[in-house]
Amino acid sequence: MSSRAPRLAAGLLTTLIVVGGGYYWYFMREIPVRTAAPEQNVEVRVFGIGTIEAQVVSKVGFQITGKLIAIEADQGEVVKAGALLAKLDDDAQRAKLRKSEAAQQQAAANLAKTQAQRERAEVTYQQKKSVNLRRQTLVGRGSVSQEAAEDAQAAEEIALGDARIIEADTRVAAVLQDDAASQRQIDAVVLAQHELRAPFDARVIARSKELGGIANAGEAVFTLIAPASIWVKAYVDEALAGGLSIGQRAFVRLRSEPNRTFETEVVRIDQENDRLTEERRVYVRCRVCNPEHQIRYLGEQAEVEIVKKIIPSSLFVPLKFVEGYDGRSGTIWTLQEGRLARQRVQFGERLLDGRIQITSDVQGQVVADDRTDLREGRAARPRSGS
Questions:
Q1: Does the record bear Transmembrane in its keywords (predicted)?
Q2: Using CB atoms within 10 A of its CB, is residue 73 exposed (0-12), middle (13-18) or buried (19+)?
Q3: Reported pTM
Q4: With contact defined as beta carbons under 8 Å apart, do 196 and 87 qualify?
């Protein structure tokens, strides 16, 4: 009995030493912790999901119905303004134009003829007027008979009537010439409508007709976009959209090229949010892209990061190290004079990587460590390189 007591005492002592050492090791010893240091020129970015779109999209087709005899463009091609895209069979319309040109020439000849007749009638009238004036003078002197004077008067009046008739014929001929010219212009316009030309510098993104097919009036044959009008329409959570403005830098990452980013800028912000999704529509456009740039496939999904502001200098802490965060404030661990302490602080901007800006004054150093053995008042020291 007496021999067992020392052994029990020794075992109990050993257990107490082990437990006490473990307690000290886990709860009391000084521990190294990672601390946050002030960061310089930190970009505050806002994330959005969107698609590639074009501001200027035009579905072009013919104003008349006809058979396609030529197609000069296909999807993916870049065309200049006025370039021929397609053409309809125009033989019948060319014949109409030649007929209207002949009618215009005939009207011009008729006008020239009536103008010559008018000049002749004017000369005849003046001659009859002069003869009548002389005979009316002589009849008073008795040198000519009354009958001759009356004949001269009648001849003048007949010549005046003929001149007026020819003048009216001349005006009719002028009107007929204008009508023929107008008809020729109409036929020329209709002939031009047999050709489909690009209304602006564009890229063809769709062609819906083939050679030999019938194109109906008003039916789209090509879909064109203005390459310079391509942009990304992104949807940004309205809770994060405060501070967005025109001209801010943005970076686009395409779904087809997730490892590349393209620098863009904000060019439009819709004045009305989407009431259903509670998002704001923001449009960004490439700064240096040419028409053959990768950002040219409409409808492709893209991720957008907009640089809302740059913070010159501030402290940031990962949100996972904040307790009781309510959107404006929360509690963090700090290291003050070698001891751990909790502190309630105010927060500002939130970064895309999950860190959040501390805007209020902090006593000591901010602890950014995921250790589970942090205790109020425990001794600690900054970890080397943190």
A1: yes
A2: buried
A3: 0.70
A4: yes
Residues near 220 by beta carbon (within 8 Å), at least 6 away in sequence: 59, 60, 61, 208
> Which amino acid, one-letter code, is at 250?
A
SS (H, E, C) the chain: CCCHHHHHHHHHHHHHHHHHHHHHHHHHCCEEECEECCEEEEEEEEEEEEEEEECCEEEEECCCCEEEEEECCCCCCEECCCCEEEEECCHHHHHHHHHHHHHHHHHHHHHHHHHHHHHHHHHHHHHHHHHHHHHHHHHHHCCCCHHHHHHHHHHHHHHHHHHHHHHHHHHHHHHHHHHHHHHHHHHHHHHHCCEEECCCCEEEEEECCCCCCEECCCCEEEEEECHHHEEEEEEEECCCCCCCCCCCEEEEEECCCCCCCEEEEEEEECCCCECCCCEEEEEEEECCCCCCCCCCCCCCEEEEEEEEEEEEEEEEEEHHHCECCCCCEEEEEEEECCEEEEEEEEEEEECCCCEEEECCCCCCEEECCCCCCCCCCCEEEECCCC
Q: Is the C-alpha dihedral spanning 209, 212, 214, 215 positive or negative?
A: positive
Q: What is the pLDDT of residues 165-188, one digit of tens each?
A: 888 988 898 898 899 999 999 999
Distance CA 250, CA 361 (A): 31
Residue pointed to by tokens 């006008």: 111
Model pLDDT for residues 365-386, shown as the tens digit of each residue: 999 888 888 888 888 889 865 5
